[in-house]
Description:
This protein is α+β, with helices and mostly antiparallel strands.
Amino acid sequence: MRKREEVKEDNIVTIIPEYGRQKLLGYAESFRELAELFEEKRVEISPEDKNRQEYLWQKKLYESRGLLADHLKEMAHIMSGVAGEAYQYRPISERKYRQVSHYLKESGILLKNFMILENEDGHLTLSLAMKPQSQDNIMLEDVAGLISAAMNIRLRAPGQAPLFMYKEWSTYYFREEPSFHVLTGFAKATKETEKVSGDNYSFCETEQGRMVAILSDGMGSGEKASEESGKVIEMMERLMEAGFRKEAAIQIINGALAAGEQEQNMSTLDICELNLYTGACEFTKIGAACTFIKREHLVDRLSARNLPLGVFQQIEPETIHRQLQDGDYIIMLSDGVLDALEQGIGEEVFPELLGKISHTNPGEIAKQILNYCLRQSKGKIRDDMTVLVIGIWRYDWKYDKMG
Length: 403
């Protein structure tokens, strides 16, 4: 990881130097002013003022300006957020510093500087300037384990950190491990007349301690549907990685699909975003099938009644909030699964089936659900079917945050 400069004001540490922070805030203000300019040029028109062809063209231009203004505002929001990123500095006692330094030295690591930072959510990041005593390769994952034991805090190195420590003095950052961890599983069946499934999905965990599961069902089936849903997944991942808020990312993707002139591109979008520190979960649905939360024998059904992406220039995603607990399971489905159920017991009886499942492995649960649906449809696969299962467990880890 590259060394980052830190500026300390009282007990607040800003990750970006003041000059860079001011530049980012200046850029953000420019984007806001540009967004206002595009909004000023948006003049409402009525069909009576123009012939039909010109009216439709003006309407599309009006909508495009609105989307562009929204995107510029989101860029300004991201820049302001990065510029304002700050941590509370928590001093470490000289005694604790010597203990950690001695502990690392016994493992062949020299310590020069040590800081404890706390972000706005109360989660800790430890900053340590270190170097190996010898030329031996030392894995950063092992270093995280050493510091965890020394500080009585469960820590991990960020995903973009190097695999091994550098040979020269370098600053490394270790984040507090979330309270919850997850295991995921899936099962898929492709429409019997096709070679490729039109469903796509992804699981990813962010550096901010969030697990995101995304499922998209492309319109129709086969390669074209797979290409469309795959693009939706890829765009959603990249926009969220770039810092876009989920709602803004959805509008950008929808605008891109709705702008297609030759043919309509419609895909569903089902997003599950779980805070691994708190267990709070947010489900966002655009034309997606029901999601189920299984808590032992009890099952909670989450559904939405809106259209897929690409139908209108502006959409209203439906968002559902739930607080999850240790041992809960999230079951996400594509439309083909529920369609298969309609050929048998029906969707209404499905929660009762989920409540009786005794498997604890998410992959086994997903396979059991898919096999049950195949039996209900007598082995006929009339549409692509995808089952995603996420199991949530809580760490039993107690420590004093001040070390």
